[in-house]
Amino acid sequence: MEFLKKKKKILYAGCVFFVIMFLCTLLSKGIYGASLPQVETEKPEKRALGHMVEAEGMVTANREVAVDTVSGLKVNQIYVNLGDSVSANTLLFDVDQEDLKEKISEQELAIKKLEMSNEQARQQKELDAQKERLAQNRSLEDYALADTEEDRKIEQAGDAVAKAEEKLDDHLNNQPRQTPDEERNQKKEEYKDWDSRMKDLQKQQISANSELEAAKAEEGAARKALDDYIAAHGDSGGGDGYSGSDSSGEDNNSGSGSSGGSPDSHDGGQEVVRENTAQSREGQASGGSVSGNDGGSDGSGTAGGDSAGGDSVGGSDDGGSAGGGSGSGGNSDSGEASDNGGTPDGGEDNTGGGSGPAADPERERLEEALKVAEARRESAERRVKSIEEELAKGNVDTKTKPDYASEDSAWENWESTKKSLEDSVDSAKQNQENSVWDKLDAMLEAKRKVEDSTLAANPDLTLEMNQMEIAYRNEILQKYVQLQKADGQVFSEDNGIVTKIKISSGERVPDGASVVLADLDESFKFRTTLTREEKKYVDINDTVSLKLGNSGRTVEGQVAYLAESESTPGSYDAIVYLPPGEGAVGQRGTMTASSQSQSYPLTIPAKAVYTDNGISYVFVLRKQQGILGEELAASRVNVNVLDKNNKFASIEEGTIDADTEIIVDTTKALEEGAVVRYGSRKE
To answer: Which UniProt keywords apply (predicted)?
Structure first.
């Protein structure tokens, strides 16, 4: 039982707790909701947008009439004001009479000066024409003279070529004699052979003289040895004995080819002979000596024996001798052979002993040695004589060394002169060719001068310009005179209203119009200025309403002109012509133009579109989960506005659609993600 009571209490307490919690939730939700921004939303609708353009302007004249006079005159007095209505012959202003007289005098003086300048220009023109004719005649004369002068130069150049060629021909016909190379080589070879032969003979002569001196020295030594032996032993030897002459009974010093036995009787090669003699003696002292000469003309030769006890054999092709001897205790065989049939000892047989005591071997040896020496000397003398005869013959038929230097020098000089003359011919021909080209250039230049002289000079338009200025000044002068006749007064020629006065009293009249009048015979026009945005809804030929002045009366007209303003770029001038009789010049008014756009699928109230840094956007309503459950939030969406007026805006499709709730009004400023609640209408 207690348990049931306790359970009921717990259940009751739980119910009370949940009721309290529910009440607190309702209370907190009410407090939270009361603090949220209240918004009103609309969905996009399909509609067309209407545009209304209102612009203020002014009525101006459709045609203006300018009243002008000669510029530069001093204004005396102005008789009208802006806005005055004038009619024909209404006095507008007048000019100073004294100033007008001065202007007339100035124009008359200027015209007189121009007429005098014209007269001077005419005289100068005639003088220039005479100069042109004279220059033309002189250029023709110069052309003819240039032709003659250049022909003379060409002729002189031709004469120079002929003379140069004549000199060259004369030079070519007088060539110096030039020995052919074959003949030169032949003479050089002959001289070379002769010189070589003479040098060889001279060498042979020196050698033969040396041999002769050696033979003489050897003969003298042999003779002295024999004389010394005879002086020591008496003339008791065997044989025929020795009496100072050879076996033929002739003096040994008188052999053929020599003037005697004296070495001094031979010219050339003395020192060489002494040297050879010394060498011969050294040969004899060393145990043997062999000397022969087979190069001479007689072919003689000798041979000496061995003094040391050897055998000695001597032979001669032409009466030569041979002998041998032995030293102490040696055997000696001697013999002499001759191709001419001589005896071995030169013609006499001395081998057999004569009457008297027995033969002395030593003496016989010395005598035999003397005979051999004599034979050698004679052979050497014959060889020297033969060589001297050859040298004498060569000296008689002397060969001169060929020398062609002068001949070559003369040829080189001739060639140099030939080259110089050829260069002169080439130079003369080049001058002749240049003279032809020079003539062409000179004639071309002279021809051009003739052509230039026939050309008309630069046109002198002084007369024409002066005449034009005279005509202009005469016109001004006529206006001055007419104005002077009117006492300097200027009148209106049409009916109109004064809209502009561009002159001032005491000042000079400027160029252009002095007074501008609005023509009352033409209808007026309304002029206004539109912005770039307003220009989108107004076009030429559109019908517009015009409210003129303060009367409230409205008239209709068509836009006749619409273009960008030259004075204010970015704005546009619009002109509407008024019906005849409507408006007044200077009257202000208001132009009203309306237009209807196409039908747009998505349009929303213009106040729902916000702009930030040129970017248009709207706030849309979306649902999200919050701490108290599902709640409403504002979300920013960028949009592209296609068209807009003061009430609605057309939005490009894509970012929103026809079911999107657009926030069009709010009690607080909105931002992205702000939690909102519907306003009283939606609740």
So the answer is: Coiled coil
Report which of residues 583 and 111 the model is more confident about: 111
What CA–CA distances, in Å, run from 510 to 69, 463, 469? Answer: 9, 30, 21
Q: Is the pLDDT of residue 331 over 70?
A: no
Rounded distance, CA 308 to CA 282, Å?
14
In the three-class reduction of DSSP (H, G, I as helix; E, B as strand; rest coil), residue 481 is classed as: helix
Mean per-residue pLDDT, 597-618? 89
Question: How many other C-beta atoms can be found within 10 angstroms of the C-beta atom of residue 131?
Answer: 11
The answer to whether 201 and 386 are in contact (CB under 8 A) is no
Comparing 258 with 651, which gets the higher pLDDT? 651
Sign of CA dihedral 372, 374, 375, 376: positive
| Contact present, 238 and 353 (Cβ < 8 Å) | yes
C-alpha–C-alpha distance, residues 618 and 610, integer Å = 6
For residue 44, CA distances in Å to 129, 640, 654 come to 94, 14, 13
pLDDT at 266 over 90: no
Q: In Å, how far are 2, 6, 16, 550 from 11, measured between CA atoms?
A: 14, 9, 9, 87
**Sequence-separated (6 or more) residues with CB below 8 Å from residue 443:** 143, 146, 147, 150
3-class DSSP assignment, residue 18 = helix
Q: Is 635 helix (H, G, I), strand (E, B) or coil?
A: strand
Find tokens 């040098």 and name the residue.
199
Q: Within 10 Å of residue 194's Cβ, how many Cβ atoms? A: 16
First to last CA, the chain: 52
Instruction: Categorize the per-residue pLDDT at 26 as very low, low, confident or very high, splitting at 50, 70 and 90.
Output: low
**Most confident of the ranges 27-31, 358-362, 426-430:** 426-430
- Rounded Cα distance between 50 and 52, Å, is 7
The residue ranges of every structural domain in the chain are 1-35, 37-62+523-683, 192-396
pTM for the structure as a whole: 0.36
Centroid of chain to Cα 519: 76
Backbone dihedral angles phi then psi of residue 295, each to the nearest 5 degrees: -95, -5
Using a 10 angstrom Cβ sphere, with 0-12 exposed, 13-18 middle and 19 or more buried, the burial of residue 422 is middle
Reported CATH class of domain 37-62+523-683: mainly beta
Which of 261, 250, 167 lies closest to 221 in space, CA to CA? Answer: 261
| Both tokens assigned to 130 | 């005479």
Tell me the pLDDT band of 471, cut-offs 50, 70 and 90: very high
Task: Find the length of the chain.
Answer: 683
Q: What angle do CA 309, 315, 320 make, to 5 degrees?
A: 120
Q: Which of 323, 314, 337 is nearest to 367 (CA)?
A: 323
| Residue 328: how many other CB atoms lie within 10 Å | 8
Provide the pairing of β-strand 588-605 with 641-644. Answer: unpaired
d(CA 123, CA 142): 29
Residue 36 tokens, joined: 């949220």
State the alpha helices, DSSP H only, in 36-96: none
CA distance 541 to 98: 56
The answer to whether residue 109 scores a pLDDT higher than 90 is yes
Q: What is the pLDDT of residues 43-78, one digit of tens each?
A: 899 888 888 888 889 888 777 778 878 888 889 999
Measure the CA–CA gap between 479 and 117, rounded to whole angstroms.
24
- Residue 565: phi, psi to the nearest 5? -75, 135
What stretches of 541-628 adopt beta strand conformation (E)? 543-548, 554-564, 572-577, 588-605, 610-612, 615-626
Asked whether the CA dihedral 567, 569, 571, 572 is positive or negative, the reply is: positive
Query: Is it the case that residue 456 has pLDDT exceeding 70?
Result: no
- Positive or negative, the Cα torsion across 28, 33, 34, 36? positive
Residue 590: closest CA among 562, 541, 551, 561: 551
Q: Are 134 and 453 in contact, with CB atoms under 8 Å apart?
A: no
